[in-house]
Amino acid sequence: MSVAPATAPERVTFTSAELLESGSYEAPLIAGGVRCHGGFEDDGGYRSPRMLHRGPAIEAWQSQLRSEGQSLVEIPKALMPPQYPNVDQAKLLLRHGVRDPIVRTLTIISIVEGFGAIIRDVKVPALHELVVEPVEGTSLAHLDKGLFEAHARDESGYRDEGGHKQMWEAARDVALENPKIPGDVLLRMMGGGGPGQRRKVERPFPQLDQTLERMIQMMARVCVVEVFAEGTFDWGEQVLSDAEVSAAPEAAGTMVRHIRADEKPHVEYLRTGLSELRARTLRTVDGKTIAGKTVVDGMLHNMLHEMTRSRPRDQREDLRGSLAEAMEAAADPAALLEEFDSLESVWTPPATTGFEPSSEAA
Fold first, then answer.
1. Deepest of 9, 34, 137, 323, by most Cβ within 10 A of its Cβ?
2. How many whole angstroms separate alpha carbon 101 and alpha carbon 266?
């Protein structure tokens, strides 16, 4: 009787240097005159940065979870609020020469990408002391050993290499022919509670070690933001690749697709880490324990409930504040505003998030 050869176990432990390694490219990616991360293969296909080992690592950790009978966190796409202005509204404005609102929106996107570098500052506690089950050979064990740093470099660049901030700026500038950037964008973001605004941090699970709680909160929030960014990519690609309103539809649309490809590993490692925590038991500061599912689901529910309601309102309020003035550039501002409003998307947040809180304790 023949015996099938044993399958070699997937590798699940990596060094920081490996998770930050890109490998070689046939040609670099140049965006707006800046050498950016990533590059092109022999066949001209784009390859994201820092994926030589990071991609296989994420796949191995996810495979390991599935083999243990655990599922991966899945944020329903139905929870994704529409972009404001929507695609049709954005194209309408550009066709009428009203560029400021779209320039403002694209600039905000690029600034938010730059803020993404703060994830490298997230402190990772001694997880082996705070998690009952082992964490060796998981994505959790690699958060401060390459994963957070790779994410930060992807977003804001590293040294003389540009990241998503520079890539969004390049897409904006080539599509809209180096438009004038509103000088109050950053100031208004800070005043409106944007990513740079210091805000009071609530403690939904004060029984946890505070460093652990903050780490999970940040992972959950960034994961939600990254999933919701799919709507931003759809919007950006559709608007900037339309030859009727874009001076360089192919170049601008392609740049957005490159950014979208780079963001996929962010979603995947974050949902993997959250899923690993969800499948484990967490120690509390008073010597008791709490199910990881209770913590992860509770945090995701709170964030999804907040963001599905606040994000559409915040985007709308930010744009409406300067829309009337921007429309003065049009031949008939009143008629344009009426048509713009007639194209508005009607969207109601789903009644549930899929992560309703549980009182389950371990």
1. 323
2. 29
